[in-house]
């Protein structure tokens, strides 16, 4: 639905039909490579790691992707780097890793105490369990 809306909006805004012609240049290569990497390679790597390590380890690498995107943007596409952006990325990264560390730590504590996963869900979300019983 979003694609259809964008197409209609763009057809209304852009009257020049020559703007719709694809030009083989660096930007088109970047779009294709991003689609291939983001849609295929990254998804396969995430599924593979999830099978090996579990669901908590895959999202840990999200801030690392932000760092790589920033480095490649500065290196290849002449993007400028601002102090506020760097500080914001650092704060977001620290917060993200703190939350993930807490979730992993909480899961390890429940495993150490011998709490079954069903018991853990019951104690954590009793309202959802009540809805399911009705």
From TrEMBL:
GO CC terms of this entry: membrane
Molecular function in Gene Ontology: transmembrane transporter activity
InterPro entries cross-referenced by the UniProt entry: EmrE-like, WAT1-related
The entry's keywords: Membrane, Transmembrane, Transmembrane helix
Predominant place of localization: membrane
Location relative to the cell: Membrane
Topology relative to the membrane: Multi-pass membrane protein
Signal peptide (UniProt feature, chain positions): none
Name of this chain's protein: Wat1-related protein
Provenance organism: Quercus suber (Cork oak)
Lineage: Eukaryota, Viridiplantae, Streptophyta, Embryophyta, Tracheophyta
């Amino acid at each position: 639905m979003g694609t259809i809306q964008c197409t209609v909006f763009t057809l209304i805004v852009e009257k020049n039909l020559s703007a719709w012609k694809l030009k083989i240049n660096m930007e088109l290569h970047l779009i294709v490579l991003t689609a291939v990497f983001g849609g295929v390679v990254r998804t396969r790597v995430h599924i593979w790691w999830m099978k090996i390590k579990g669901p908590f380890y895959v999202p840990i690498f999200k801030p690392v992707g932000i760092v790589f995107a920033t480095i490649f943007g500065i290196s290849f596409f002449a993007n400028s780097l601002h102090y506020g952006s760097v500080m914001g990325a650092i704060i977001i990264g620290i917060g993200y890793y703190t939350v993930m560390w807490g979730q992993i730590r909480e899961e390890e504590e429940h495993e150490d105490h011998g709490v079954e996963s069903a018991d853990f869900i019951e104690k954590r979300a009793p309202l959802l369990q009540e809805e399911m019983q009705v």
